[in-house]
Amino acid sequence: MHRLLVAALLLIATPAQAHTGPMAGFAAGFAHPLLGLDHLLAMLAVGLWAARIGGHARWAVPLAFVAAMALGAALPVPMAEPGILASVLILGLLAFWAPRLPLWAPAAVVALFALAHGHAHGTEVPGVTAAIGFLLATAALHGLGLLLPYARWLGLGVAATGLVLAVS
Fold it and tell me: What tens digit of pLDDT does each residue of 103-133 get?
C-alpha cells in the first residue's frame, strides 16, 4: 500500500508554481500564497499543527508566522527557496506528529520558516499593498488549516507532498 501511495503522489506531482513572473498590488499579493503549492501547503500545515497543539497555540503559532513573514518580506534571507521547500516537509511532519513542546518552540519554528516565505513573497510581489494581500491570504490559509478535519493525516499528506517536491 505504501508503494502505491508513493507512486500515486509521483504521478500527480507538479513543480511548485508560485513564481510566475512580475505581479503587483493587493490582488497579486493575495494570490501569491494560493498559486504556489509549496506556499499553500506550508501555510495550511501551520494551521494544522496549531490545531493539533490546541490551546493558545491556535492563535499564537499562526500569529508568529504572519509577523515573521512580514519581517522576511523586508529582509534579505539566504537560502529562502530551500527553506520554503523544507518548510513543507517539516511542518507537515510536525502537524502529523504534534510533539508536546512549550509554546515558544512551535512559534519559533514557524517564524523561522516564515522569514523564507516572506522573503519570496516580498521579492516576487513587492509593495505595501501586495504585502497586505499576501499576509491576509496567509492568515486565511492558517485559519483553514485550523478548521480542517483529520489534521494529523492531512499533515502527513503535506509532508509526503513536500518529499515529492524535494525529489522532483
Answer: 999 999 999 999 999 999 999 999 999 999 9
List, in order, residues 6 or more apart from 22 with CB less than 8 Å away. none
First-to-last C-alpha distance (Å) of the chain: 22
User: 155, 96 in Cβ contact below 8 A?
Assistant: yes
pTM over 0.70: yes
114 burial level (CB within 10 Å; 0-12, 13-18, 19+): buried
Contact (Cβ atoms closer than 8 angstroms) between residue 158 and residue 45: yes
Q: Give ∠ CA 13-147-132 in degrees, rounded to 5.
A: 80
Q: Which sequence spans correspond to the domains of the chain? A: 25-167
d(CA 107, CA 59): 10
> What single DSSP character describes residue 22?
-
Residue of 123, 126, 15, 135 whose CA lies nearest to 65: 135
- With cell 506556499, the residue in question is 39
